[in-house]
C-alpha cells in the first residue's frame, strides 16, 4: 500500500493530511500534537457554532422588532463574543466590530 492509499480507517496511528496526501506520524510528540490539534479544533468549532447561533437569535429578535428579547439576547451575544475572543477562537477586533454593529442594530430598534 502506498502512502497515498493510507486511509484513517486502516491506519494504526494519528493521521495528518499534508500537501494533499495522508501521512502517519512516527514520532511520539508528533502523534500527540495531531491528537491535541483534533481536540482543540473540535472545541473551537463548537464555540464558533454556538456563537453563530446566538447571533442569529439576536438578529431574529431584531427582525421581529421584539425589544425585550433583543436586549436579553444582546447581553448573551456580547458575553459569547468576549469569551470567544478571550479563548482565541475569534480575533478581538472582530469581536469588537461585531458587538459594535449589533449594538447599532439594537439602538436603531429602540
What does this entry look like structurally?
Helices cover 68% and strands 7% of the residues. The chain is built from 3 helices and 2 strands. A two-stranded antiparallel ribbon has the order 1-2. The chain is mostly helical. The chain is elongated, with a radius of gyration of 21 Å. The mean pLDDT is 88. The longest helix has 36 residues, at 28-63. Helix 1 (28-63) packs antiparallel against helix 2 and helix 2 (67-87) packs antiparallel against helix 3 (92-109). A hairpin with a 2-residue loop joins strand 1 (15-18) and strand 2.
Q: What average pLDDT do the residues reach? A: 88
Show unreliable segments: none
Q: What is the count of DSSP helices, taking H or I runs of 4+ residues?
A: 3
Morphology call? elongated
Q: Major beta sheet, specifics?
A: 2 strands, antiparallel
* Structure summary, number of beta strands: 2
- Quickly give the structural class: mainly alpha
Helical content (DSSP H or I, runs of 4+) = 55-70%
Specify Rg, calculated over alpha carbons: 21 Å
Approximate strand percentage: 5-15%
Strand order of the largest sheet: 1-2
Instruction: Compute the separation of the termini in Å.
Output: 65 Å
Order of helices and strands: EEHHH
Mind sketching the topology for me?
Elements: E1 15-18, E2 21-24, H1 28-63, H2 67-87, H3 92-109
Antiparallel strand pairs: 1-2
Helix pairs in contact: 1-2, 2-3
Question: In a few lines, what is going on in this structure?
Answer:
Helices cover 68% and strands 7% of the residues. The chain has 110 residues and is mostly helical. The radius of gyration is 21 Å and the shape is elongated.
Amino acid at each position: 500500500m502506498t502512502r497515498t492509499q493510507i486511509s484513517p480507517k486502516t491506519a494504526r496511528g494519528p493521521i495528518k493530511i499534508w500537501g494533499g496526501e495522508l501521512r502517519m506520524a512516527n514520532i511520539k510528540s508528533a502523534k500527540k500534537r495531531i491528537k491535541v490539534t483534533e481536540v482543540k479544533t473540535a472545541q473551537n468549532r463548537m464555540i464558533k457554532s454556538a456563537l453563530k447561533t446566538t447571533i442569529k437569535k439576536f438578529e431574529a429578535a431584531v427582525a421581529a422588532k421584539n425589544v425585550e428579547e433583543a436586549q436579553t439576547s444582546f447581553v448573551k451575544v456580547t458575553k459569547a463574543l468576549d469569551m470567544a475572543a478571550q479563548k482565541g477562537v475569534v480575533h478581538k477586533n472582530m469581536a469588537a466590530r461585531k458587538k459594535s454593529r449589533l449594538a447599532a442594530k439594537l439602538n436603531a430598534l429602540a
